[in-house]
């Protein structure tokens, strides 16, 4: 399990009420995508994930809300009182009370985790971190229930932008994100972000799955 975060950013928004955020993710590419999505907002200061840090909100990306990641979140929540926005693909055997004990305040399916919705979830998580336990359990149960609906909506059929299709075709040809960026006349960071968006929307775990998904769907 990868548990790193972005390097501390300078607070270039003096006087504003910024939110200190750290990222924990299941894979490096997914972590990079989440960080890129959050970095666009001047409301946030990104800093490394650390049990000893001063973190207000953690954005945690994982296939499901359980296991080692949940235990790490519980430790940080106990020591810092941080809230968590979880991006998970399925509810699986999610432990509701354990998630509440870990400070999980918002749950998003990958298809819901656009930069705008993710920022809104971070804001809500910060505001609602101190709500009473019964309210937390009720809200979290409802949010986990929505995961099945979001996953069902994804299965209706893939819709990709022209830029996403071009990137997947180049990926299927064996090009890396740096080469794809050069061919598409975009930065490598942008290429990684486009790929991350596709992986998030269709619950894909890595680049191989992204290519296989596009082939099965007849897109490339």
Overview of this protein structure:
It is a single chain. With 220 residues, the chain is of the alpha/beta class. Helix content is 50%, strand content 12%. It has 9 helices and 5 strands. It is globular. The model is unreliable at 1-15 (pLDDT under 50).
Can you lay out the helices and strands and say which pair or pack?
Layout: E1 19-25, H1 28-39, E2 44-46, E3 57-62, H2 67-80, E4 83-88, H3 96-101, E5 104-108, H4 115-128, H5 133-154, H6 162-172, H7 177-184, H8 188-201, H9 207-216
Parallel strand pairs: 1-2, 1-3, 3-4, 4-5
Give the key terms.
single chain; 220 residues; alpha/beta; 5-stranded parallel sheet; 9 helices; 50% helix
Short summary of the structure?
The protein is α/β, with parallel strands linked by helices and 220 residues long. Helices cover 50% and strands 12% of the residues.
Q: Which overall shape is indicated by the principal axes computed on the Cα atoms?
A: globular
Strand content: 5-15%
Distance between the termini: 32 Å
Strand order of the largest sheet: 2-1-3-4-5
- C-alpha Rg, in Å? 17 Å
User: How many β-strand stretches?
Assistant: 5
The unreliable regions are: 1-15
Helix content: 40-55%
- The DSSP helix count reads 9
Mean pLDDT equals: 78
How would a crystallographer describe the biggest sheet? Answer: 5 strands, parallel
Structural class: alpha/beta
H and E string: EHEEHEHEHHHHHH
């Amino acid at each position: 399990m990868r548990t790193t975060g972005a390097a501390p950013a300078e607070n270039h928004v003096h006087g504003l009420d910024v939110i200190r955020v750290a990222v924990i993710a299941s894979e490096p590419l997914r972590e990079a995508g989440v960080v890129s999505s959050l970095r666009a907002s001047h409301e946030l200061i990104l800093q490394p994930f650390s049990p000893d840090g001063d973190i207000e909100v953690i954005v945690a990306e994982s296939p499901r809300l359980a296991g080692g990641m949940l235990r790490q979140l519980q430790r940080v929540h106990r020591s810092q009182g941080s809230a968590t926005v979880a991006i998970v693909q399925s509810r699986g055997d999610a432990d509701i009370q354990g998630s509440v004990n870990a400070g999980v305040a918002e749950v998003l399916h990958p298809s819901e985790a656009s930069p705008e919705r993710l920022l809104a979830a971070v804001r809500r998580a910060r505001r609602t971190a101190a709500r009473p336990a019964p309210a937390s359990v009720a809200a979290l149960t409802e949010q986990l229930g929505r995961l099945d609906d979001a996953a069902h909506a994804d299965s209706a059929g893939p819709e990709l932008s022209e830029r996403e299709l071009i990137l997947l075709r180049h990926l299927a040809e064996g090009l890396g994100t740096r080469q794809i960026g050069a061919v598409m006349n975009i930065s490598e960071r942008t290429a990684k972000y486009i790929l991350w968006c596709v992986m998030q929307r269709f619950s894909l775990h890595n680049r191989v799955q992204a290519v296989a998904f596009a082939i099965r769907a007849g897109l490339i």
